Each structure stands twice: as structure tokens, then as C-alpha cells.
Amino acid sequence: MPTLNLSGAMRLLMLAAVFVAGVWSQSSGVIDDFIFYLPDIQFLAVQHIWLTVISGSLAIVVAIPLGTLLSRPSMAKVAESVMQVLNVGTTIPTLAVLALSMSFLGIGTVPAVFGLFVATLLPITRNTYTGLKGVSPALKEAAAGIGMSPTQRLLRVELPNALYVIFAGIRTALAINVGTVPLAFLIGAGGLGELIFTGIDLYDPVMMLSGAIPTAMLAIVVDMLIAITAFLVVPRGVNPSRT
Amino acid sequence: MIRLDNLTKVFDTPKGAVTAADHISMEVPSGEICILLGPSGCGKTTTLKMINRIIRPTSGKVFINGEDTTSLDTQDLRRSIGYVIQQIGLFPNMTIEENITVVPKLLGWDKAKYRERAREMMRMIALEPDAFLKRYPSELSGGQQQRIGVARALAADPPVMLMDEPFGAIDPINRAVIQDEFLKMQQDLKKTIMFVSHDIDEAIKMGDRIAIFRAGKLVQYSEPDELLAAPKDDFVESFLGEDRALKRLNLVKVRDLASEEIGLVRPDDTLDAALTRIEEYGYQNSIVMVNDKRQPVGIVNAAVARTTKGHCRDHFQSVPVVVSLDDDLRKVASLMFANDMTWVPCVDDDGRIVGQITQRAITHHLGSRYRTHSRDDTTLDAAASLSSNDKE
Ligand SMILES: Nc1ncnc2c1ncn2[C@@H]1O[C@H](COP(=O)(O)OP(=O)(O)OP(=O)(O)O)[C@@H](O)[C@H]1O
Ligand SMILES: [Mg+2]
């Protein structure tokens, strides 16, 4: 969770600054300018959120089973090479991923979702894999030794114990996702990027901020949502934030 | 009953084949604890894990209660065997209650039954159910976790238990406590148990039988007293340690060696009568004086009896030590040394004199076992003839 570690003095200063900014924006008519963009913001934000939700959930739905599959002992031979490929994939800038996806799939929502999906997929797969690999052999042996089937071992012991690491992966991945969505505008998928980039082009700071501020807020909200979900879903015994 | 028939495991490693267990054949009778003992890497764990197929045998068979387990489904087999691993292996994501009830749940018990079972298990391992059931393993001490590990293995009441150094990760004082608790439980439960240890004292304390392993081979399989009395070869002998005669003292109870014959005096007897009795029984220093209930109230010294006239009730000293029939000889020997005595009176649960135990009886017990079981071992023979000369 984003924590604000500010001393009392800093906090007072911040409050004062916000107050001054408020007074200034009120008097200079910036608020009115923002209100002008409100319908655009609403429309584009919905598009924006959809891009995140669809690509994000697709990535989660694919990445966790993929990471799980790779972590199975029978996959040990190929798993390391696949992870190497994924690691290299992670180093490719997301803008390049989008560009690549556009060159295959053309312009519009589909290549954008696909690009975002790929960028989100990698961290979750990697964390699922390392999280499951990191479950202590003693636990797996105990689970097997008392007579759990492989599926029961996975669902009752391995996944719950890897869940914290998996959630860390989801968090990183969605941070990348939300941060990349504005770029989707560049390949014609809309979203708040439209206001940002057009604002930059037209040298219109208010327009640019109308896109940037909701984007930033969205990033914070998504991060908090994941943190809260992790807090609730990861069993207390293996949840460092709940001890 | 667990029977191993030529159980063998060969590991293929990059450096070649390693035979971790080499044609192991042995049988653990129902209700007994068998300790697998031996130096590190001798194949104890491998042998144990072949029983519940954590390790697949290269060849050989495992029979449980007469049934060849080869034909059983692996999961079913494992659910019928309690398993305590060395690293404890509690599931950190589950509460203590969930940990204890995993196997009953796998077996499809209904909720009321397995929850009651969890409470019952907690009482059995002497942990307060209400205080612990809802906690997580990380919130328990090492010793408590180890107890839960045992409880988890026992929860579904399996007839057979496999325990790999179950009390290894625990300090010596707590280990002794847990060992005692476990032995007490075992008296009622009568499980058939294979128990890996590398601690000879633990083996002697816990084991009905001890199997000594060396480099994948079973070299000796005997009851503890037999093992200590007659180690089969130099390896076993050196593994048991030079003080193995003293270790045997742990195994024998006063009850086994006490003699009922004991000369006593009463407070009303005269010192003359006491002296006669002392000589009659061949005592050197003193004789025990008892009250009407045969409880020892003092001792009368031979020297005093010789030089003084009067009644015993006016000329006695306090009793230095008595031992109970269930004490082990180690305690007796220690008391004898500490009080410079060659015999100690034995009392029953009500504190009544029932006999005596003598240093000679102890020495004779240790010696006789050595003689009957000794190999062509010249030192032992020499010792035997020495002591027989002594008697003549
Ligand atoms: N998975 C394995 N692959 C190869 N060799 C193995 C494997 N497991 C055990 N061994 C070898 O088999 C031999 C017996 O191992 P085992 O674990 O049974 O010893 P142990 O008697 O339990 O020793 P310790 O007291 O140290 O636990 C050792 O030489 C060990 O190196
Ligand atoms: Mg071992």
C-alpha cells in the first residue's frame, strides 16, 4: 500500500499548499476549464478502465495456470528455458510491445488489449512459478506423506503458501498495465491517453492534466484494491502483513 | 505389524549408483516401537520412506498387517500410515486445528467428528485446545509445533506410524519431556511404529527393538538390552559407545533384580536380637527397622548393637535411601555410589519394604548377560573367569 511517511511539519506544509492551489484554481478559472473536459474524461476513463480490466484479468487467468504448470516437476526440463524467455520478454519496453502487437494485429482495441496482456502476463507467470518453486520441500513431502493427491497438494498447500508471492506479481503487473494503458491511445484504442497526448500536442496543460490526474488516481486505486484483496485472501499464517 | 522383505533402493546419481538400502528384511511386531539407528547417510530415512512410498523401492516388498502394500493405492496407503517428518512440516497457511484435521478430512469424516477429534488430540498432547486450535504454526514454539506434528500424524488413528527423527529439532530438556509423554501415549495407543533416530540414548529409551544400519545394510536387529549386552560386531560395539554397560542400567527396573529376602527388625526388638539378625543375613554394617506397616523408619548400626544394650527403638538412625520397584538401575547405582552402600531397601507404592537390591545383583546381571552372549571375545571371557574365581 502506498504509505505517506511525512512528518507533522511536512503534512502542514502540504495542507497549506493544497489550500493555496485551491484558491488559485478557483480564481483563475482552471476549474471551469476542467469541467469543460468532464464528459470526455468520463467517456475515456470508462474505455481506459475496460482496457485494464480485460487485459489484466485475461493475464491473471492465463498466467497463474501457466506458472503453475511450469512449476510442476514433470515440466522441470523445459520450465527454466521458458522462464528465461519470459525474463527476456520482461525487459522489452511496453511501448515496443504495443508497437509489435500493432504491426501484427493492426489498429484498435484488440492489439492494445493484446499488448497490455503480454506485458502483464510476464510478471504474474514469473511470480507464480518462483512462488510455487519456493514452497519448502518439507511441506510438499508432508502433504504427500499424509496422503494428499497431487491436486489437493497444489490447492491446499502449494498455492496458499505461494499466494503472497503471486499477489506481489499481480501488483507489479497491474502497475505496469495501468501505466501502459495511456500508450494504447497511440495504436488507436482510446482511453485517457487521448487527453494526455492531445494535450501535449496542443500545448494545453489543462487538457493534459484532465487525462493525467485520473490516470494517476486510477493507478493508486488499482494498487490499493490489490493490496486489500491480498490482505483478505492470503491466509493469515503466511501473510506477512497480517502478523 | 510391519514387515520389510529384501527392500532395496539404488539411487542413480551423476556419480554412479548409490545403494542407500541394501536388501533390508525385518519385522516390527504390532504395538511395538522399532528404532532405526545408525550414522548419517546409512539409509535410515530411505528405508522409512520406502514404507509410505515417498521413495519408490528399487526392489523388495513392504507388508503391513500381513498385506502386501504393492497392490494398494498410494494415497490410500499413506492415509492409513501416520507420518511425522523431521522438519515437522506443519502447513503454515492452516490453523492448528486445520493441520490436525487434514487427514480425517481427506478420509471424509464429518465436521463434528473431526473437530471433536482435534480437541481430543490437543488434550492428548497436553496443549490447551481453546488456546491453540485457532492459532497458526508460526505462533507456536518449536516444541509445541513438534507435538502438533505428532498429533497430526495420530489424528486419523492409523495403526502404523513412521517417524523420522521426530524430536530432533528440540532442546534436550524438552526432548526428554516429549519422549516421556509419547511413551505414555503409546502405552494406550499401541501403534506399530518405525522411528528414525541417530541418538543412541533416545533409541534405548524409546525402542522395543533397535535396528542398527551401516552403509545401507541392516547389521543388527535386537531388543535394546540384547543389543547392549551382545553387539554383533566391532562397528556396532563402537557405535554403542564404551559406556554401554552403564546404558543398560537404564533398561532394567528394580523390580527385575530385587530380592525379597531382607532382614528386618522392629522397634521392640532388643539390640542383641538385631545383632543376631545382622549376622544371620550376613550384613556388614546395619539392618533396617520397620513399623507395623512394614514401612522403614530407621536403621540400626551393627557397631551400636555390639556395644550397647537396650531396644532398637532407642538406638536407630535415619534411613539414608530407599528405591521404588519401578526405578531403573541407573538411579539405584547412582544412589549406591553417592551413599557408599552395597545394598538399598526397596519399597512398594505404599512405602512398605518389599525387598532389597544389592550391588552384587546388579553386577551379576550385567555380567551374566555378557557371558551368555559374548562372542569369542577374550577380554570378556577373562572377566568372566575372574569373577567366578572371586566366588570360590
Ligand atoms: N534422492 C537421492 N538421490 C541420490 N542419493 C540419495 C538420495 N537420497 C539419499 N541418497 C543417499 O542415500 C544414502 C542414504 O541416505 P539417507 O537419507 O537414507 O540417510 P540417513 O541414514 O537418513 O542419514 P541422516 O541420519 O543423515 O538423515 C546417502 O548416502 C545419501 O547420500
Ligand atoms: Mg535421515
Describe the model.
The complex is a heterodimer of chains A (about 240) and B (about 400). Chain A is mainly α and about 240 residues long. Chain A folds into 2 domains: about 1-35; about 35-240, MetI-like (MetI-like fold), CATH 1.10.3720. Helices cover about 80% and strands about 0% of the residues of chain A. Chain A has 9 helices and no strands. Chain A has helices at about 10-30, 30-70, 75-90, 95-105, 110-135, 135-145, 150-185, 195-200, 205-235. In chain A, helix 2 (about 30-70) runs antiparallel to helix 7 (about 150-185), helix 2 (about 30-70) packs parallel to helix 9 (about 205-235) and helix 6 (about 135-145) packs across helix 7 (about 150-185). The longest helix of chain A is centred in the first third of the chain and has 42 residues, at about 30-70. Chain A is globular. Chain A starts with 7 loop residues before the first helix and ends in a 10-residue tail after the last helix. The model of chain A has no long low-confidence stretch (mean pLDDT about 90). With about 400 residues, chain B is of the alpha/beta class. Chain B folds into 2 domains: about 1-250, Rossmann fold, CATH 3.40.50; about 255-360, CBS-domain, CATH 3.10.580.10. Chain B has 17 helices and 16 strands. In chain B, the strands form 4 sheets. Chain B has a 6-stranded mixed β-sheet, sandwiched between helices. In chain B, strands 2-1-4-5 form a 4-stranded antiparallel β-sheet. A 3-stranded mixed β-sheet of chain B has the order 11-12-13. In chain B, a hairpin with a 5-residue loop joins strand 15 and strand 16. In chain B, helix 3 packs across helix 4 (about 110-125). The longest helix of chain B has 18 residues, at about 170-190. The chains are: A mainly alpha (about 240), B alpha/beta (about 400). The interface of A and B includes residues 142, 144, 145 and 149 of A. The structure holds adenosine-5'-triphosphate and magnesium ion. The site of magnesium ion has 3 residues of chain B, from helix 1.
